[in-house]
């Protein structure tokens, strides 16, 4: 299981081979002293709701960054393991005041969102579920609508 990235807080982020396409992968993470977990859309959305409750303006700027600089810019993976295409540690600082809200660090969120977006574009090149979720959150949709979309199978 290749570790793709380790955050400053020691959270390891890895990928496993998936089954949906040739370069499909499953994203996993492990906080120090805890078990491996698979992040879901809903986990990220709930954390962003918490951040928005603490600082709506900065959270909307973070959502703009996620939409415009991650979701719209990443490409499908043509290798396994995939590589981060966009993330740079310099992307964390403008949003660092949001660290006090929610569960996840900005560093973790940006890396996980990028990998999930690469995964989505690898398996569903025309898919836009994540884009719509983040746009709905950015546009102030109610929690019921967003959670319903994030947990739809």
Characterization of the model:
With 153 residues, the chain is mainly α. The protein has one domain (40-150). Helices cover 43% and strands 10% of the residues. The chain contains five helices and three strands; from the N terminus they run βββααααα. Strands 1-2-3 form a three-stranded antiparallel sheet, covered by helices on one side. Helix 1 (41-54) runs parallel beside helix 4 (129-138) and helix 2 runs antiparallel to helix 4. The protein is globular, with a radius of gyration of 15 Å. The mean pLDDT is 94.
The gist of it:
This protein has helices spanning 41-54, 56-71, 106-123, 129-138, 143-150; strands at residues 3-6, 12-17, 25-30. It is mainly α and 153 residues long.
Task: Describe the SSE topology.
Blueprint lengths: L2 E4 L5 E6 L7 E6 L10 H14 L1 H16 L34 H18 L5 H10 L4 H8 L3
Antiparallel strand pairs: 1-2, 2-3
Helix pairs in contact: 1-2, 1-4, 1-5, 2-4, 4-5
């Amino acid at each position: 299981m290749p570790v793709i990235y380790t955050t400053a807080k020691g959270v390891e982020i890895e990928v496993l081979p998936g089954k949906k396409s040739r370069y499909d992968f499953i994203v996993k993470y492990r906080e120090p002293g805890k078990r491996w977990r698979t992040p879901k859309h809903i986990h990220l959305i709930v954390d962003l709701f918490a951040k928005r409750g603490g600082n709506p303006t900065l959270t909307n700027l973070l959502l703009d960054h996620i939409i415009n600089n991650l979701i719209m810019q990443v490409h499908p993976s043509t290798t396994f393991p995939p590589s981060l295409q966009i993330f740079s540690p310099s992307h964390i600082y403008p949003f660092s005041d949001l660290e006090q809200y929610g569960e996840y660090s900005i560093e973790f969120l940006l890396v996980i969102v990028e990998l999930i977006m690469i995964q989505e574009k690898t398996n569903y090149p025309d898919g836009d579920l994540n884009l719509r979720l983040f746009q709905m959150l950015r546009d102030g949709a109610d929690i019921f609508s967003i959670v319903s979309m994030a947990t739809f199978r």
